[in-house]
């Protein structure tokens, strides 16, 4: 006669109807959790996007190439000497240029030294042409009457260049057609070699002329 199902006291036994009475956890749940975690990490990694222009900025901010150092050729002793000699010569030339003497004009000394003056006619109508009516007199004596008959040494015209040797400041006063007066008389020589005295009112001289010696 049957006595029913036998229980031998072992853990995890099964009943006669095949049900599991054990209290241990199976390995299938752990595998599912690990797979789920991997899937979520992969999805998060795929959703990360690279900011635009990131790689270009990284390349631009990279370290600059080191500057190349070029070794200069060593100067030989005689080359240095030539450079120094050229520098000294340039300095000497510059000093000479600063202190060089001005242009020297050789002029005759004594009574042969003259100053060029130009004849001036106050009458505008007589400033062209060389008519007798427009001729100006050179006097023989600066202290005699200018229009005296015997006080004529030669003729000059407006614009003539004369060589003045000296001047007297106490000659006879002469008045020109414009009313200008002067007691200055220049001892002159014309281009034709005629020597005489020109009244100061017949020139507009701006150059210094030495005074004539007395006697």
From TrEMBL:
Region (Disordered): 1-29
Gly residues compositional bias, start-end: 1-16
Annotated TM spans: 78-99
Key words, A-Z: Membrane, Transmembrane, Transmembrane helix
UniProt superkingdom: Bacteria
Keyword Transmembrane helix: yes
Annotated protein name in UniProt: DUF4333 domain-containing protein
Organism: Streptomyces decoyicus
């Amino acid at each position: 006669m049957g006595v029913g199902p036998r229980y031998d006291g072992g853990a995890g036994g099964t009943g006669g109807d095949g049900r599991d009475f054990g209290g241990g956890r199976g390995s299938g749940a752990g595998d599912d959790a690990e797979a789920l975690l991997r899937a979520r990490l992969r999805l998060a990694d795929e959703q990360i996007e690279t900011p635009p222009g990131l790689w270009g900025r990284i390349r631009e901010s990279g370290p600059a190439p080191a500057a190349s150092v070029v070794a200069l050729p060593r100067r030989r002793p005689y080359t240095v000497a030539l450079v120094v000699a050229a520098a000294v010569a340039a300095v000497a030339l510059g000093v000479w240029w600063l202190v060089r003497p001005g242009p020297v004009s050789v002029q005759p000394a004594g009574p042969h030294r003259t100053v060029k003056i130009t004849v001036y006619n106050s009458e505008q109508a007589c400033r062209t042409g060389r008519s007798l009516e427009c001729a100006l007199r050179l006097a023989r004596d600066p202290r005699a009457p200018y229009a005296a008959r015997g006080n004529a040494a030669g003729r000059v015209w407006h614009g003539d260049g004369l060589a003045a040797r000296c001047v007297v400041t106490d000659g006879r006063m002469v008045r020109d057609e414009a009313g200008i007066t002067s007691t200055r008389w220049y001892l002159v020589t014309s281009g034709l070699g005629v020597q005489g005295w020109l009244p100061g009112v017949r020139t507009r001289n701006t150059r210094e002329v030495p005074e004539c010696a007395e006697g």
